[in-house]
C-alpha cells in the first residue's frame, strides 16, 4: 500500500512538471513580446537579452499613443464592432426565433441552404463583394464594412441562436400566448431572458470576428485614418523594420487586452451558448 | 370540442407571411452579402476579368476551370495537395497532443487542474492575427527572433526559418498547433470527464495497461462526444488562411517560401496578380470541394424531429 502511494506521488510530481513546462512553452511568445515592450535598453540585437528586463520602461506604450493614430483606430474598431453586433442581433434574433418555433413553407430548404453557405469562406467572394459595393459608393466607408461583416456573420448568428432556442421548452410561451401576449412581447419577456447565454456568446463571437478581421479592412479601406485596430496593427508590422518591433509588441498586447477580458468573462457560457458546434474564436 | 389541427387556409398563409417578415432582415442580408456574391463569383469565373479587363471583360466559358484543373503548372493542384497534407498533419498532431495533455489534466489528485487549464487555453483568447504576427517577428525573425537568439547563444549561425518551404511549413504547423490546441484540449478534456470511472476500475482489475485502456475504453467512449468538434476543426484547418498568409506571404513581405494552401492561392490570384476570373474559378472549385466534403461527412446539425 505504501509503495502504491509513493508511486502515485511520483506520478503527480511528474505530471505537474510536464504541465508546468508546457504552460511555460505556451507563454514564450507572449512573454517575450511583453518583455521586449517594457525593456528600456534596446538590447534586442545583442545576445544577452533576458526575459526579465534590467530596466523597465513604458516608453513604447507611450509611443503607441503618440506616434500612431491608435486612438482613431480604436474608435473605428469600436464603432464597427458595436454596429455589427447590434445589427447582427437585431436581425438574427427574430429570424432565429421564427426558424425555431414556426413551421412554414421553405423553412427546411432555407436551413439546408444555410449549412451549405456556412462552408463558404467569405474571403473567396471578396472580388464579387468589391464589385457589388463599389458602384453603390460603399467602398472605403464604414457602412460598407459593416454590411460585409454583418452579412458574413448572419448565417452563424441565425444557426447558433436557433439551436439554442430549440432547447427552450415552448410550453411557457404557449401559456403566454393563450393569455394574449403578442409574439414581440413573448420574445422580449420570456425568450430573451432564457436565452441570455447564447445571445452573449453570439455577440461575443461577432465582436471578436470584427475586432480581429484585417483582410477586408485592408482591401476595402484606404488611408490610415480609416483603419481599424487590426488593419492598423497589420500596417505597423508590414511597413517598418526592426526599430518598431518594441512598439509593435506593445501595441499588439494592448489590442489583445479587451478581447482577453471579454473571452474570460464569458468563458463559462461558452459550452452552453455555442450550440451548432459553432466556430472557434 | 377540440380545436382541429388544421388551421384555415387564410391563417396559414398569414402565418407564413409573418414568419418571412420576421426573418426578412436576416435573410435579405444573407442573400445580399453571401448568396449573391457567390453567384456573382460563379459568373466572374466564366470571364477573363483581370486588372486590364476590369469593366471590359469577355465571356470565355470554362477556360479558367480548365486552367486550374488540367494545367498542373498553374499551381492549383499542388496547392490542393499541400492543403490536404497540411490538414492531415495538423489534425493528427492536434489530436495526439491534445489527448495527451487532456489526459494529464485528468490525472487523479491533480490540485492545480483549473490553473493549468486556464493557462493552456490562453492562446485561444488572444486575437489570432496578433498571435501570428508576434510569432512571426518574435520567434521566427532572422535577426531578433527568439529562436535565432537562442541559436546564437548555442553557437549556431542564424537560420531564416520562413525562407524555405519545409521549414516554413513546420513553422506554420507549430503556430497553427499553438492556436488550435486550446480548443481541442477543452473538447477532449470535457469528453474525458464524461467517461464512467467504473470502466477503468474493472479494467485495472483485469490488468489492462495504459495503451489497452486508451484503445478499448477511452477512445471509444470519447469518440462520439468529440466527433462534431473534430469535424469543425478539420474544416477550419482546411480553410486556414491567416497562419500561412501572415507568416510567409503578406503583400510586399514575402519570405521566400512558396507554400500555398488553396485559400492563399485564390487570394494571391485575386489581389496580388489581379487575375479575378481565374481566382473566381478557383473559389468555385474550393466551394464545391467543401460542399462535397460536408456531404461525405454528413454533418447535419441536430434538428428536432
Structural commentary:
The complex is a heterodimer of chains A (about 280) and B (about 300). In chain A, about 75% of the residues lie in helices and about 0% in strands. With about 280 residues, chain A is mainly alpha-helical. In chain A, helix 6 packs antiparallel against helix 9 (about 195-210). The longest helix of chain A has about 35 residues, at about 1-40. Chain B is mainly α and about 300 residues long. Chain B has a two-stranded antiparallel ribbon. In chain B, helix 1 packs across helix 13, helix 3 packs across helix 8 (about 165-195) and helix 8 (about 165-195) packs antiparallel against helix 11. Classes of the chains: A mainly alpha (about 280), B mainly alpha (about 300). Chains A and B meet through helix 1, helix 3, helix 4, helix 5 and helix 6 of A and helix 1, helix 3, helix 4, helix 5 and helix 6 of B.
What is this structure's SSE topology?
The complex is a heterodimer of chains A (281) and B (305).
Chain A: H1 2-38, H2 59-67, H3 70-101, H4 107-118, H5 126-133, H6 142-167, H7 171-178, H8 183-194, H9 196-212, H10 215-220, H11 229-238, H12 245-273
Helix pairs in contact in A: 1-12, 2-12, 3-6, 3-9, 3-11, 6-9, 7-8, 9-12, 11-12
Chain B: H1 9-44, H2 63-70, H3 76-105, H4 113-120, H5 122-125, H6 128-140, H7 146-153, H8 165-193, H9 197-205, H10 210-238, H11 242-248, E1 249-250, E2 253-254, H12 262-271, H13 276-297
Antiparallel strand pairs in B: 1-2
Amino acid at each position: 500500500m505504501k509503495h502504491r502511494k509513493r508511486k502515485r506521488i511520483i506520478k503527480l510530481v511528474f505530471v505537474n512538471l510536464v504541465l508546468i513546462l508546457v504552460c511555460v512553452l505556451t507563454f514564450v511568445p507572449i512573454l517575450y513580446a511583453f518583455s521586449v515592450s517594457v525593456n528600456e535598453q534596446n538590447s534586442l540585437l545583442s545576445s544577452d537579452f533576458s526575459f526579465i528586463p534590467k530596466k523597465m520602461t513604458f516608453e513604447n506604450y507611450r509611443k503607441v499613443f503618440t506616434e500612431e493614430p491608435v486612438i482613431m483606430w480604436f474608435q473605428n474598431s469600436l464603432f464597427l464592432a458595436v454596429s455589427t453586433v447590434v445589427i447582427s442581433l437585431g436581425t438574427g434574433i427574430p429570424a432565429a426565433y421564427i426558424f425555431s418555433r414556426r413551421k412554414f413553407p421553405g423553412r427546411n430548404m432555407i436551413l439546408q441552404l444555410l449549412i451549405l453557405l456556412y462552408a463558404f469562406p467569405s474571403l473567396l467572394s471578396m472580388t464579387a463583394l468589391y464589385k457589388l459595393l463599389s458602384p453603390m459608393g460603399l467602398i472605403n466607408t464604414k457602412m460598407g464594412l459593416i454590411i460585409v461583416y454583418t452579412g458574413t456573420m448572419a448565417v452563424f448568428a441565425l444557426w447558433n441562436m436557433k439551436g439554442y432556442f430549440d432547447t427552450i421548452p415552448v410550453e411557457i410561451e404557449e401559456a403566454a400566448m393563450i393569455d394574449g401576449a403578442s409574439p414581440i412581447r413573448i420574445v422580449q419577456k420570456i425568450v430573451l431572458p432564457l436565452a441570455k447565454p447564447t445571445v452573449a456568446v453570439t455577440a461575443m463571437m461577432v465582436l471578436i470576428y470584427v475586432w480581429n478581421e484585417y483582410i477586408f479592412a485592408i482591401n476595402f479601406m484606404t488611408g490610415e485614418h480609416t483603419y481599424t485596430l487590426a488593419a492598423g496593427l497589420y500596417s505597423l508590422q508590414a511597413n517598418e523594420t526592426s526599430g518598431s518591433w518594441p512598439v509593435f509588441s506593445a501595441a499588439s498586447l494592448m489590442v489583445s487586452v479587451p478581447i482577453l477580458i471579454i473571452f474570460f468573462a464569458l468563458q463559462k457560457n461558452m459550452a452552453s451558448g455555442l450550440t451548432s458546434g459553432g466556430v472557434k474564436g | 370540442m377540440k380545436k382541429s389541427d388544421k388551421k384555415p387556409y387564410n391563417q396559414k398563409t398569414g402565418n407564413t407571411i409573418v414568419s418571412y417578415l420576421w426573418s426578412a432582415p436576416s435573410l435579405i442580408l444573407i442573400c445580399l452579402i453571401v448568396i449573391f456574391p457567390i453567384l456573382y463569383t460563379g459568373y466572374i469565373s466564366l470571364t477573363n476579368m483581370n486588372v486590364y479587363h476590369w469593366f471590359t471583360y469577355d465571356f470565355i466559358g470554362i477556360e479558367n476551370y480548365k486552367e486550374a484543373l488540367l494545367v498542373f503548372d498553374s499551381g492549383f493542384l499542388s496547392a490542393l495537395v499541400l492543403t490536404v497534407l497540411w490538414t492531415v498533419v495538423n489534425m493528427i498532431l492536434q489530436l495526439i497532443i491534445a489527448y495527451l495533455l487532456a489526459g494529464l489534466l485528468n490525472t487523479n489528485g491533480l490540485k492545480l487542474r483549473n490553473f493549468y487549464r486556464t493557462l493552456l487555453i490562453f492562446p485561444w483568447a488572444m486575437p489570432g492575427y496578433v498571435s501570428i504576427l508576434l510569432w512571426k517577428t518574435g520567434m521566427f525573425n532572422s535577426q531578433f527572433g527568439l529562436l535565432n537568439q537562442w541559436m546564437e547563444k548555442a553557437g549556431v549561425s542564424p537560420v531564416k526559418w520562413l525562407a524555405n518551404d519545409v521549414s516554413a511549413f513546420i513553422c506554420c504547423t507549430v503556430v497553427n498547433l499553438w492556436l488550435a490546441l486550446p480548443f481541442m484540449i477543452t473538447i477532449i478534456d470535457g469528453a474525458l470527464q464524461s467517461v464512467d470511472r467504473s470502466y477503468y476500475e474493472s479494467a485495472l482489475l483485469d490488468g489492462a495497461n495504459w495503451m489497452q485502456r486508451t484503445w478499448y475504453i477511452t477512445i471509444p467512449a470519447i469518440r462520439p462526444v468529440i466527433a462534431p468538434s473534430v469535424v469543425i476543426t478539420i474544416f477550419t484547418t482546411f480553410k486556414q488562411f491567416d497562419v500561412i498568409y501572415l507568416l510567409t506571404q503578406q503583400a510586399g513581405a514575402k519570405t521566400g517560401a512558396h507554400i500555398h494552401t488553396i485559400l492563399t492561392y485564390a487570394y494571391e490570384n485575386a489581389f496580388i496578380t489581379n487575375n479575378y476570373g481565374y481566382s473566381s474559378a478557383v473559389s468555385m472549385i474550393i466551394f464545391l470541394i467543401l460542399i462535397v466534403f460536408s456531404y461525405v461527412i454528413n454533418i447535419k446539425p441536430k434538428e428536432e424531429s
